[in-house]
Amino acid sequence: MYLRIHIENFRLFAALRASREKRRGAVVLVDESGCIAELNSAAQAKQLLPGMTMARALSRCSGMQVVHADAQAERAARRILWNAAWQITPQIELGERDALGTATLELVRPDFEQLTTQVQQLLQRLRRCGLPARAGVAATADWAGFAATAAERFQFKMLPTP
């Protein structure tokens, strides 16, 4: 069995976590080219999209707040994710590049009642750290990824085994 922890818009939430300001409303993370790389749900509601130029984004939402990627904040957030996952098992693979903000854990003979409690506590710890995660469990790592993506934010979804 595998458990996948997924933090959507990881780079954005890592940068927000490191920022001392409390940001509300539409917030976007801008990449090196000056385009939107990641955005929060308030920015999505304003119909902003990843890849959009800043000029176009500002024409749709003049009140949006812009943050820039912070490699140090991302490393700190990855350590938090690693430490949270380690509470369940030491068999962890952290995602890189396109899978940044994911952790895949291999579970050997899991006790599902105990696992449910552990995962809910893990999601709460990540939430308190400013990292809104979701999680999924399935027989394969890929299916666990699908389950995590399908789960609601801060929730846990388990796919039955055949």
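That was protein one. Protein two is written in the same sequence-then-structure order:
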Amino acid sequence: MEAGVCQGCTLSAIFLNISLEPVLRPALEMDTEGYSHFGKSLRCLAYADDFILIDKSRKSLQILLDSLVFTAAMIGLKFNPPKCASLAFHHSMKGRIVNEVPLLISGTPISSHR
């Protein structure tokens, strides 16, 4: 197997969690603002092999993303930019406004959802 996890294998989730913990830890310990939720700063949500990075600026998001990409590469994992996307928005008097936020994975742009 060259990519992904073995679907249906009960050990896949365990091995995935063991391998992703050292990838996520440096990003979670970074000094970025994140999103405050009940007094706790959220910077990353993860479910299986999906990540949601959260921050208040494009620059901070790119720093978090670069940290994940760098740390993942150290243990032989890599992100697939065509399967990645960004969604950014802000609130104004007119409601929520979706913005395009150009983010890169190893120099490759990822798509922005609108």
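The two ends are 34 Å apart (CA to CA). Keep this in mind for the problem set.
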